[in-house]
Amino acid sequence: LFAEYDYGAEGRPRFGLSLGLLVDCLNMFTVPGFASPVEIRYPGPDMQLLLRSVGSPDACIHAEIRTRIPDTVAWDYHFEHAGNTPVTFTVKSAILKESIDDLEWPGSSIQIHFHPDPPSVIFKGEGHGDLEIEFSYYANTDLLIAFQCDQELSYRYKYKFLRATTSNVPSSVLKENRGSKVTIGRGGMLKIQHLVSVARLGTQSYHNFAGGAQQPSRIAFIEFFVKPEEED
Q1: Where does 87-226 sit in CATH, by number?
Q2: Where exactly are the structural domains of the chain?
Q3: Going by C-beta distance under 8 Å and a sequence separation of 6 or more, which residues neighbour residue 229?
């Protein structure tokens, strides 16, 4: 994913910027048919995000995006496991999206309940009625790919935030359907990771023994964090 990575900051620097502006800026570096590497640096002399194309010795595209300091929040987004054993499961990405879509109730919250014995996960939506979707590890290991839990846990999350973790992921994630890992950390912090293939830079397609062309790739992930609802 990274041709080179250098991290020299102390702590975890945070900054805010316009997502639309960032996407428009990255599109300027896109060359059809060529994976152009981009160097990204932060901070610049005036605390800006610096982008520079480094793929061609004959031309260089340079961009600066002004950033802002994000609002200070009391919640600590540093993820820690809930206990000695991580509470987590992995499910097919398309199935996770379909399940969350099916649980939609206007203004509702979704309860996620982990059962260590028998190993299962229950998604429960409450609105004008109740709807439950259960993933049982022993019933279908192709559906629930992995499961790890040594304690019973249950937290509620706002539906609109939970749905955002699957509604805007790239279509390639659902097409490849490699899997999505769901983990509950300390205090109920929910972490959802979607696995995605990333083509290697500067590599050529090769042919397998069946005669088909394939592109070598690496596996990366898209990560979301969702804060649980506070108990009244």
Answers
A1: 3.70.10.10
A2: 1-72, 87-226
A3: 109, 155, 156, 157, 158
